Amino acid sequence: MSGLTESQVASFRENGYLVLPDYLTPTETNTLITETNNLLRDFPLDTHPLTKFTTGDGIDESTNHVGDDYFLNSGDKIRFFFEPDAFSTEPDPVTGRAALLKPKNLAVNKIGHSLHTLSPPFKAVSLNERNAAVAKSLGFTDPRVLQSMVILKQPSIGGAVPSHRDSEFLYTDPPSAVGWWYALQDASPKNGTLGMWKGSHTGRKGGHIKRRFVRKGDGGTEFIENTGPALPRGMEEEKVSEPSDEDLEILDIKAGSLVLIHGNVLHKSEKNTSDRSRFAYTFHVIEGGEGWEYDERNWLQPPAGGFSKLESCVQV
């Protein structure tokens, strides 16, 4: 388990993302899809609070942020969050609750946020030596895994994710997050694939973390201005320009591929208007070593035992 090659690391550091085709075997990919479908089938609907997943898309947005207890206490659980467009505008006449327009398995936006500890199939592809070697290649000294989730992008209603940087949501001082994003199904421009702004993680392209998604003091969540370090340690501070449309690459990703996503790189995905779903599994890795502090205001807080160590038997 040697991790990434020098050229792969160089590409990641230049662009802010790296696509690794065939990272999962077809058997691993199919096992994760089966596990996802089983989870969608088995969760109870009658006791579910029908939490919808939405974060809003701006610092000044004061509403439209997910932030109920079901969401905020999901860091060490497997929970289910619905697409806003999966509901009727009128309540169910019998129960008085919001009425789904689709079967529950076709209405969920994502499953999270501790699949990497509670689901054996997802744990097997997350907490392993291969990923530890990749993390070491990227310079992590004490990599910790958090916020694992399946993002479903349901046919015709899979919502768009506005442009953002992952370290806005999982802030460490200084920033250190990297996302592991596995395509469980083919992801193309037709069904809401990733759009990445090349080089937008750097100071030269305005890659500073300017805002943060945090818990509000009186409950719920909000975006606030970031007053701490805005770039990872050792990155260029000089700002030359903001990312432009010329920097945007719309990825075409085959099932089984892994996309590594720098926590400061600007990226998005569009709404899935096709008749094909776009399942992806993702988790994040942050630096747990001395000199990096996970912020106590982040929406996701560590469980009692701390975030999962990504350990390796690799000899160096």
Please tell me about this protein's structure.
The strands form 5 sheets. Strands 1, 2, 5, 6, 9, 14, 16 and 18 form an 8-stranded antiparallel β-sheet that branches. The chain has a 4-stranded antiparallel β-sheet with strand order 7-15-10-13, with no helix packed on it. Strands 3-4 form a two-stranded antiparallel ribbon. The protein has a single domain (6-309), classed as Jelly Rolls (Sandwich). The chain contains 6 helices and 18 strands. Helix content is 16%, strand content 26%. The termini are close together. The protein has helices at residues 6-15, 26-42, 69-72, 115-118, 120-126, 129-137, and strands at 17-20, 78-82, 87-91, 98-100, 108-113, 143-151, 161-164, 172-173, 178-183, 194-197, 211-215, 221-225, 248-250, 258-262, 267-269, 280-287, 293-294, 308-309. Strand 3 and strand 4 (98-100) form a beta hairpin. Residues 58-63 have low confidence and may be disordered. It is globular. The longest helix is centred in the N-terminal third of the chain and has 17 residues, at 26-42. By secondary structure, the chain is an alpha+beta fold.
Describe the secondary-structure layout:
Blueprint: H1 6-15, E1 17-20, H2 26-42, H3 69-72, E2 78-82, E3 87-91, E4 98-100, E5 108-113, H4 115-118, H5 120-126, H6 129-137, E6 143-151, E7 161-164, E8 172-173, E9 178-183, E10 194-197, E11 211-215, E12 221-225, E13 248-250, E14 258-262, E15 267-269, E16 280-287, E17 293-294, E18 308-309
Antiparallel strand pairs: 1-14, 2-5, 3-4, 5-6, 6-16, 6-18, 7-15, 8-17, 9-14, 9-16, 10-13, 10-15, 11-12
